[in-house]
Amino acid sequence: MAEAFTSNTRTGWLEPIAASTERFIATVGRLTDDQVHAETLIPPWTRGHVITHVCRAGDSLMRLLSWARTGIEVPQYPSMEARAADIEAGAGRSVSELMTDLVDNGVRFADAVRALSEVGWQRQVRPRTGELRTAETLIPMRLRELEIHHVDLDAGYSFPDIPVAAARWILDDIADALDRRGTDCPALRLRATDSGFARDPGAAETRDRIGVTGTQADLLAWLSGRVPAENADLVADGADTIPVAPVWI
Q1: Which residues in the chain come in under a pLDDT of 70?
Q2: What is the average pLDDT score of the chain?
């Protein structure tokens, strides 16, 4: 399944993104208005903050897709202050209002992908993290947002529930981000026991690397910063303990 993800990186991405969106919406739909304002795995954000962030992050990716489509530069966010204000403004909404936003956001995102021309698929744009991306690596960022933040809701969806192919792409995307940091990233040797995921981010000789081995789900839980090193169900090689996960975004 992971190979299918990487071999069909254009509108084919819309299928797993739509499935991920449906799962996210189903979880939100089971919440009450009281529950939607409870704590999450990423305090101080409530579930309302997380859900609103997923919607506004979708808008931000659509701005980048507009840049790719038209060639007119549009920043992913006007500013980080504006990003935070938009999330805060929407966090107190009811479940019904949040659901409407999620559904509308999903439809508009799919329309933005389908509107890309051949030139749009090839044009490079720059997200807020600074690297250049084409639409082929920009679009699956939506899947990353949906899956990791679905877990953040702390409402019954966990890292082992993330589809194998999605987890693999997200792990590779995080490893790419760590590679871009170069010497600012601790030298790691990452290996998944249940897939072919194997990456060595960070600059160092192989013998100097800290090996971290576990399932894709456990690696992702740790690398994404959701599970502390001391609680990670992982095996270390070259160190006495699992290191603190490096900042990746």
Answers
A1: 1-9, 205-207
A2: 93
* Dist. CA 99–CA 41, nearest whole Å: 20
CATH of span 8-157: 1.20.120.450
Q: Which residues pair with 199 in a beta bridge?
A: 190
Instruction: Show the tokens assigned to 119.
Output: 């030139």
Q: Fold for 165-237, please state it.
A: Nonspecific Lipid-transfer Protein; Chain A (3.30.1050)
pLDDT of 1 reads: 35
Q: What is the pTM of this model?
A: 0.93
